[in-house]
Design goal:
Number of helices: 12
Number of strands: 2
Radius of gyration: 29 Å
Helix content: 55-70%
Distance between the termini: 97 Å
Largest sheet: 2 strands, antiparallel
Number of domains: 3
Order of helices and strands: HEEHHHHHHHHHHH
Strand content: under 5%
């Protein structure tokens, strides 16, 4: 993440918005979006989202020059595009399961712009291929994925503002808000190392720590640190072995109790038998 990357997202956020009063999306300035609409006209709401999505992909990955200079070959930017896309889709219901599948089937899988070869780039064939590298994220519902949006925007704001004002003390409040958001996400969505949620948390964490490094010569010690683990997950992992031990001890005590009862009954029967034979 850097200022250039965040400014591209900010341009989209400023010029393409959802208006709750009209329950629809609006281009405040469509000069950079209409080329991605069919004959310059985006009739459906999802057509507008698709146009903005393609604008972002072109902004970062259009050809080798852009891929290397703006994106700096960092495909983790795709994760942020997916977060933005889910955030925008979350305003409307396009899939009864709350997934991104409908959008993928109607746009990403069939639109030639997603399937056109990226000039000068050999590692990735096209935008669909780039998205495919993050395929595990596509299983996350739009509702859950959109919850990562606020943390992403807070981080971008800090990167953009830092370029014009490098006094890191100015970003302490936003840093604290980011860490609070991150902590909430970490508590709720950290399901282990290989979880798709963990992948998003890791990307946000790396970019936050990179920003902290920009302030290493200032009072960066005042910047709050991110949690390295989920308290809920630690408690869960602690309780499981405790529960196992409890069950094992209960079984052992139960067996021991049964053996004690059995021995006592055997002794009584043996004593009674001796008494009967003695008479």
């Amino acid at each position: 993440m850097n200022k250039e990357v965040c400014e591209k997202f900010k341009y989209v956020l400023t010029n393409f918005t959802y208006e709750s009063s009209n329950e629809g999306y609006k281009f405040k300035d469509d000069k950079h979006f209409k080329d991605y609409c069919d004959k310059g006209n985006c009739g459906e709401e999802t057509d507008k989202i698709n146009a903005a999505c393609l604008f972002l992909f072109d902004a970062f990955f259009k050809d080798y020059s852009v891929f290397s200079s703006v994106a700096k070959s960092n495909i983790n930017i795709v994760e942020y595009i997916i977060i933005w896309l889910n955030y925008m889709l979350n305003f409307i219901t396009i899939d009864e399961n709350g997934s991104i599948d409908h959008f993928c089937n109607h746009y990403i899988n069939i639109d030639e712009k997603y399937n056109k070869k990226i000039d000068g780039v050999t590692v990735y064939n096209n935008y669909k291929d780039l998205i495919g590298k993050k395929q595990n994220l596509m299983s996350i519902s739009t509702k859950d994925m959109s919850k990562f949006y606020d943390a992403f925007i807070l981080l971008c704001d800090m990167y953009i503002e830092f370029e014009t004002n490098s006094d890191c003390d100015n970003y302490l409040e936003k840093a604290k808000k980011f860490v609070e958001k991150y902590d909430e996400l970490n508590e709720y969505y950290n399901n282990g190392k290989y979880s798709p949620y963990n992948q998003l948390l890791s990307t946000l964490s790396n970019d936050y720590n990179n920003f902290k490094n920009k302030c290493k010569d200032a009072q960066s010690s005042n910047f709050p640190s991110l949690p390295t683990y989920s308290r809920k997950l630690v408690i869960k992992r602690t309780l499981i072995p405790i529960a196992f031990i409890f069950v094992a001890v209960s079984i052992f005590l139960g067996i021991a109790y049964k053996e004690t009862i059995s021995k006592a009954m055997f002794k009584r029967k043996n004593k009674k038998y001796k008494e009967e034979t003695d008479h």
